[in-house]
Amino acid sequence: MDGYVYFLYPCRHWYLPIPSAICYLAFAEEIDMLPVVVVHGGAGFVPKERAMQSKAGVCAAARSGYAILQSGGSSMDAVVEAVTKLENNPSFNAGCGSVLTTSGNVEMDAIVMDGKTLASGAVSAVRNIANPVQLARLVMEKTTHTCLTAHGANQFARAMGVPEVPQESLITEYSRMRWEKNLAPDANPVECQMGKMGTVGAVAVDIEGNVACATSTGGLLNKMEGRVGDTPCIGCGGFADNQAGAVSTTGHGEAIMKVTLARLILFHMEQGQSPEAASDLSLAYMKSRVQGLAGVVTVDPQGQWAARFTSSQMAWAAAQKDCLHYGLYTGEHFTQSIDEP
Hints:
- The protein has helices at 18-32, 48-70, 75-87, 132-142, 150-159, 173-181, 253-259, 261-270, 275-290; strands at residues 4-9, 12-17, 36-44, 108-114, 120-126, 147-149, 200-205, 211-217, 238-241, 245-251, 294-299, 305-309, 313-320, 323-329, 334-337.
- Helices cover 33% and strands 27% of the residues.
């Protein structure tokens, strides 16, 4: 048996020459990075009195998504679970915390994408739906289309048995206060995002190495009726491809759309850049080219991940190897056991 190493692995026995054994050790280390889920709670400015809410919210979402992965669920299961958790949290601009249009209505957008097949589903300008991300998944799985909008999306929801909820249940006192304050003629709808956590999203890699992304938003504060931003657009609000990785974006939608931010990041990763470097390059390009600020969470199929942003803050959290990572400010990176309260 000279020159051979004998390995024990669940359900398998390995009897390999040493060079192959070395390769296997590298493969085992790679598998040890999986699964992983990374979430964001929106790019922008978060007042100190709301900082703890934003951190707690993204940490809870990351834990929920990670629990799905640990129980054998797919990356798609994980990102939908994480984003659903954020849509149900009134602190964020999605689901029950959505900002209002100029007319005082809620119109929401969402997208999901499966990196294994490139299947995607999205909805835009939907009303009276508690969890648009779940409706987006139904579009992907139950139709031959990629995106349904407004009345058509709501009609599809009824056909799928998705219950409608009163619009008032999606409007918080905080959202209504921001809406009223920013009806002033000189109000800037981009600057007025200050004080409201934004678009939410998640990316994940499951134990099989499949990636997925999901993004959901209430849109731009005091937007025109019918305005649709980057979130439901493939390559803008999100993109997932097993050959490169997955991205979920947040920020000023019109600027993100001009540079197809999610796909741009994966282009750089295809050229050999790490998730962090690719994210930074793309965010810098967006800022210099169209003067837009944004944030992203990015992951590659091996489990390397990044949470990067050019805005003042972005609440984010990641779960990997039973460790929870999270932060809000630039350069902030806390870690704790996934089981710690």
